[in-house]
Structures are given as structure tokens and as C-alpha cells.
Write a structure and sequence with these properties.
The chain is an all-alpha fold. It has five helices and no strands. α2 packs across α4. The longest helix has 17 residues. The N and C termini lie far apart (28 Å).
Length: 83
């Protein structure tokens, strides 16, 4: 479970970097606080709810099916997340 949590954090961080998204904008769209997202991305908050993850994916314009594929396949970590 811990490995999956780390992958989630890494994928979200990579997506924000590649899409040049600011934490404040993502948080506003997702309806979560910047402090919470910061803890999540630094892997200090390990068990985000499905609702929070879905909200973040939606805010970053990432298809949930693509996200699950990224979790399943380590090789996709290097793929371009931009649509």
C-alpha cells in the first residue's frame, strides 16, 4: 500500500511539473487546501481519499483511466502526461 501511495504522489508531482500547474490553481479547482496538497506531494500525507485523488485528477485534466494505467506500469512514469 505504501508503494502505491508513493506512486500516486510521484505521478501527481510529475503532472503538475509537466503541465506547469501552480499548486494554488490546482487546489482551488480541486477544492482542497494548499497545505494538504503540499503534505501529499511531499509524502507526509500517505492516505488520500479516492475523492481527493479524483478531484486532483480532474483539476489537472488527467483521465482517471490513464492515471490507473500509470500506477500499474512503471514505464509510463517517463511518458508525457500532457493530453
Amino acid at each position: 500500500m505504501e508503494e502505491i501511495s508513493k506512486r500516486i504522489c510521484e505521478i501527481l508531482s510529475q503532472a503538475m511539473e509537466e503541465k506547469k500547474l501552480k499548486q494554488a490553481d490546482v487546489c482551488r479547482k480541486a477544492g482542497i487546501s494548499q497545505a494538504y496538497l503540499s503534505l501529499l506531494l511531499k509524502y507526509k500525507k500517505k492516505n488520500a481519499s479516492c475523492r481527493v485523488i479524483y478531484s486532483l485528477l480532474k483539476a489537472m485534466d488527467i483521465d482517471p483511466v490513464d492515471f490507473v494505467k500509470m500506477l500499474e506500469d512503471e514505464e509510463t512514469w517517463n511518458m508525457n502526461i500532457n493530453p
